[in-house]
Amino acid sequence: MKKILILGSTGSIGKNALEIIRNFKNEFLVAGLTVNDNIDLLEEQINEFNPSSVVVKNKEKARELKKRTGNKCRIIEGEEGLLQITKEEDYDILLSAIVGIAGLKPTIEAIKKNKRIALANKETLVVAGEIIIQLLNEYNSEIIPVDSEHSAIFQCLKGEEKKDINKIILTASGGPFLNKSKEEFCNVTIKEALSHPNWKMGNKITIDSATMMNKGLEVIEAFWLFGLSKDQIDVAIHPQSIIHSMVEFKDGSIKAQLSLPDMKLPILYALSYPKRFNYSDVLTDIKKIGQLIFFEPDFDKFVCLKLAYDVIEEGGTAPCILNAANEVAVEKFLTGKIKFSQIPDLIKEALDAINNHSRATLENIFEVDIKTREFLNKKYN
Ligand code: NAD
Ligand code: MG
After folding, report:
1. What is the pTM of this model?
2. Separation of 147 CA from ligand 1 center, angstroms?
3. How many Å lie between the centroid of ligand 2 and the Cα of residue 31?
4. Three-state SS across 120-156?
5. pLDDT digits (tens, 9 = 90+) for 112-170
6. CA-wise closest residue to 71 among 93, 52, 45
7. 3-class DSSP state for residue 211?
């Protein structure tokens, strides 16, 4: 039995992971769960999965949950709880599925405890890729990607050698605005931006998909995860989201991983790896799929994707500035304070204004993160 600690159990990835665990009761059990404030759903999850501890970031909600559940499990309150549960709980796999830079510290803690990291929280690798890769080597720990594109590449690379890779090709659906012109971007509504054609996900990543910043963050994630150069990471628009990504080898051969778009598959793989379990809930009838189409992304229209490639070049804390600025810009768009078309403008402003440290350390990552947020919050409050 593998014991799983899920950070972000009430989110889109968290709920899918619990669905997998429900299906494989003889393989997995839940060691702990963490949420922001949705204690109603957490209470149901506690009753069904019996974790030994949970974290509720919102302290008031944590106390309310304590009243409701009594001594059923340990309830830790506050943001610091994330670190505490990763330090103290007994688990084999950390599923990091919270949003944003909040995932970084608990992930580092789990690496130091030599646990497997099933990583959905791509922001961790975006802001601190170099540090994370060094720690993985130092502590002999492993990250198994949950992001569907990186899971696809990870699967394609099984049995292959890095020196034989020409490039990887991350596929992107193109999001809801693939066929809109750049001029139309200033008029799109929050509701339109939250309507992803293929994937049902949390709000932040759904907006990132509409701007294609999600693909940009994934390019940076792949850069660190697979140790390739920026020029070896290609992006292809593939509106059907059936091929989740590909690897081209030096003999010209291309390997791909395919399935219907459903996050339960990469989650299951990250938990069962190196084994594969019998699972028939997401079978893909390839003859019913029809056409698979691929084309070049439009970097002029999707400026965020271009900015992500640029910050890899800049290095240091530039990806951290990009990530923080994007988190703020998305939040400002979702609360009606800026237009959709302004999201890349805010990121550019922050990249110009905030001083980049050429070498990222944990200290300057958090410093730059706070400075970037303060700068944009002051300007666009
Ligand atoms: P979501 O918004 O649906 O869920 C986030 C979860 O994290 C919730 O349970 C929330 O309560 C919890 N949470 C957020 N901040 C927290 C904090 N500071 N402390 C404790 N708990 C906190 O998000 P999601 O769509 O599931 O995405 C999670 C992560 O996975 C993101 O990094 C995203 O980029 C990545 N990801 C998601 C998908 C997807 O299909 N949803 C695919 C690939 C990667
Ligand atoms: Mg993805």
Report:
1. 0.97
2. 12
3. 26
4. CCCHHHHHHHHHHHHHHHHHCCEEEECCHHHHHHHHH
5. 999 999 999 999 999 999 999 999 999 999 999 999 999 999 999 999 999 999 999 99
6. 52
7. helix
